[in-house]
Write a structure and sequence with these properties.
The protein contains 10 helices and 13 strands. With 320 residues, the chain is an alpha/beta fold. The protein has 2 domains: 2-168, Peroxisomal Thiolase, Chain A, domain 1; 176-319, Thiolase/Chalcone synthase (Peroxisomal Thiolase, Chain A, domain 1, 3-Layer(aba) Sandwich). Helix 3 packs across helix 4 (89-97) and helix 7 packs across helix 8 (251-261). Residues 231-320 form the Beta-ketoacyl-[acyl-carrier-protein] synthase III C-terminal domain. It holds the Pfam family ACP_syn_III_C. Homodimer.
Length: 320
């Protein structure tokens, strides 16, 4: 059995900061950010939280799928930025949407998180343990940013995306995933421990820090390799793939992957100009946008690929 995506949903805060807004905070400008990242603006929470965004995206995905919350067997939330540790975000979502029969837990694999969560859902379905799974990526990254750090604050945004997977007869393509903890220092964010926290002190370790050059080199090298690896496992050629749906980290990274694979850039949809890097929310956010635009047709072959903190990276093939 395979989990087929039968519904998608997303949510982004109404409030946003464009590049000109950031130029008032740090030494940058619209042209510099667009040229190096492709980001034009990013949506930022005001009253929203990881849970509230996940709930809104989930309700839209369930409505799109025609599946009732009580039919869900499992809820997975990929996040590393939830405002609460306990209860986990997935249990909070379960409560809010009334998914009384679902097991719920969170998964943290940073920007690769949605791919890992999607693969986890497929494993549960293939084993027969679950029939219907809600997979969510939700991030409030603005809470983790040092807004004086130009290397990070220009990149990231907040949002959530959700997909509903339902067990059907079909081909389950084997996913490919990797992690390399030896390179984890390229992207870090430490939690705040009260014993180290003194009122009035700025705990810079609690903000996201990134070695942008190292992450860029890692992504441009590893993402094409993992895509080729997963296609080999599935016995699918590059030219058979309709869309490569990559984590929306940086326009230059995506363009670099397309060049290395010698594929038309039109097969690599992007929406990071509007949302920036939303970490584990980026792939389901893009899937929902493509779904509602009518870009996704039954039988199309897609590759989803994520990469980021850990360092971790992975890809999965699926049929729409």
């Amino acid at each position: 059995m395979v989990g087929k995506i039968c519904g998608t949903g997303s949510y982004v805060p109404a409030h946003f900061l464009d590049n000109d807004d950031l130029a008032k905070i740090v030494d940058t400008n619209d042209e510099w950010i667009r040229e190096r990242t492709g980001v034009v603006r990013r949506h930022v929470i005001e009253e929203e939280t990881v849970v509230s965004m996940a709930v809104a995206a989930s309700r839209r995905a369930l409505e799109n799928s025609g599946i009732a919350p009580a039919e869900l067997d499992l809820i997975l939330v990929s996040t590393f930025s939830s405002e609460t540790v306990l209860p986990c975000a997935a249990c909070e979502v379960q409560r809010e949407i009334g998914a009384v029969n679902a097991t719920a837990f969170d998964l943290n694999a940073a920007c690769t998180g949605f791919v890992f969560a999607y693969n986890t859902a497929q494993a549960y379905i293939a084993s027969g343990m679950c029939q219907t799974v809600l997979v969510i990526g939700s991030e409030s990254l603005s809470n983790l940013l040092n807004w004086r750090d130009r290397s990070t604050c220009i990149l990231f945004g907040d949002g959530a995306g959700a997909t509903v997977l339902k067990s059907e007869e079909g081909v389950l393509y084997r996913p490919v995933t990797h992690s390399d903890g030896n390179r984890g220092n390229a992207l870090t964010c430490m939690s705040r421990h009260r014993k180290d926290w003194l009122p009035g002190e700025e705990d810079l370790d609690s903000y996201m820090k990134m070695d942008g050059r190292e992450v860029f080199k890692f992504a441009v090298r590893q993402v094409p390799e993992v895509i080729l690896e997963v296609l080999k496992e599935a016995d699918i050629s590059l030219n058979e793939v309709n869309y490569f749906i990559l984590h929306q980290a940086n326009k230059r990274i995506i363009e670099g992957v397309a060049r290395r694979l010698e594929q038309d850039i039109d097969k690599f949809p992007m929406n990071l100009d509007e949302y920036g890097n939303t970490s584990s929310a980026s792939i389901p956010l893009l899937l929902d946008e493509m779904n509602h635009k009518g870009m996704l047709k039954t039988g199309q072959k897609l590759v989803i690929a994520g990469f980021g903190g850990g360092l971790s990276w992975g890809a999965a093939c699926l049929e729409w």
